[in-house]
Amino acid sequence: MYLREGDAVLTFDFNDPQKLQISGINDNPTVDMRFQLRELTGVVPSCTDVPACKSNYPPPMGNPVGSGTIWTQEPWLLEPIVGGAAFLTYGNRVFSKCYLTLNPNCLVGVDIGASGNPPGWTVFTNSVGGVSVPPPQFLWELLTEVAQVAVHDPTGDGTPDIPEGQAEPIFQLQGVPIGLTGEELIAQLRPTLQGQSAQISSYILGRYWKNNDGLDFYYRRGEPGGVPYLYFVDETDQRPDPNNPDVLRAYSYDKPGFFTSPDLSEASRVSQKIIDGVDDSTHEKYRLSTGETTLYLQDDARDIYEVRFFVPEGADPVEVVAKVKRL
Fold first, then answer.
1. Percent of the chain with pLDDT over 90
2. Which residues is 206 bridged to in the sheet?
3. pTM of the full structure
4. What is each CA distance from 178 to 6, 26, 138, in whole angstroms?
5. What pLDDT score was predicted for residue 37?
6. What are the pLDDT digits (tens) for 60-87?
7. From residue 199, how far is each of 1, 16, 294 by CA, in Å?
8. Which helix (H) or strand (E) holds 204?
9. How far is CA 33 from the centre of its chain?
10. Which member of 152, 174, 260, 288 lies 3.0 to 4.6 Å from 160 by CB, making a disulfide possible if both were Cys?
11. Phi, psi angles (nearest 5°) of residue 138
12. Among candidates 106, 88, 87, 85, which has minimal Cα distance to 97?
C-alpha cells in the first residue's frame, strides 16, 4: 500500500531558488510568430460611387459604404488586413503627377487627395485612346485589388496559379518582445509552477495507486521513528477497483475498526481515531502489545474475520505474525 500524506504524492518548493534553478532564458526574450491568413471566395470590389465612397472609412473612423466592399468584411480575413495595412500607410497621402503632356495639357496623370478631395482619394487622368484607368477610389482600396490579383499569381506571368478563395499566405513576425525581461519571467514562473505542483506531482507518478492492493488494514508507524499501529483503511487510502483498475475502489465499509468481540459491538471496539502523539485523525488505529492479541474486523463485503497477532518479546515491534480466519 503506497500511502499519501498531504494533498500531493510529491511536494515541491518552486519558490526556493536553491531547489529550483532556472537558467538559459535570454535577458530580453523574444518570440517568432507565424500567422496563416485566409481569403474570401471572390474578389472584394473597390468602392467607386461618387460622392458616397469618399466617406468610405473603416470603423471607428466612419461607416463602411457599399455592399461587399472592404470594410464590410470580417477584419481577420486577408483582404481587410491588406486594406488596413495600406490605409495605415497611405491614409494621409497627397500626391499629383502628370506622366504624359501635350501642349501643355496632361494626357495621362494621377491626383491623390487633390482638388478638394480627401487624402488618399485617387483620380486618374487619361485622354489616350485604347488606354484604360481605374475609376476614382481610395488608394488603399486600389492596392487591395492589386494584392488580390498578385496573391494568386506568385510567378508573375499573368496566369493565376492559385484558384480564387484558396490563397493562404503566411505572415511571419520575428523577434517580437514578449514584454518581460528574463528576470521578470523567472519571477512569474515560480508562483505559477507552485500553484500547479499538485498537477505536476500527478503527471510524474500518474495513477500510482493502481499498484496498491485492496487491503482492509495495514501496519505502520504512527510517526517517523515512532511505535507502529494497526491502521484500518479509510477514504483517503486509494485502492484500484477490482473490476476496473483504472478507477478508484469505492469505500463501502459498514463498521471500520478493530474489536475484541466477533459481534463487533461498540463496547468491544479497541481502535480509535485520536491518539496522543499521532498526527493522523481519520483512521481507526490500534497499538499491538507484546505477546498474542486476537481482534475481529469486517471487510467491505460484510464478512467478519478473526485475526490473531503475535508480537515477539524484545524484537523489533514491526516483526509480527498475523493469522487470519474468516468466520
1. 75
2. none
3. 0.52
4. 37, 11, 36
5. 92
6. 888 899 989 999 999 999 999 999 999 9
7. 22, 19, 43
8. helix 197-205
9. 18
10. 152
11. -75, 145
12. 106
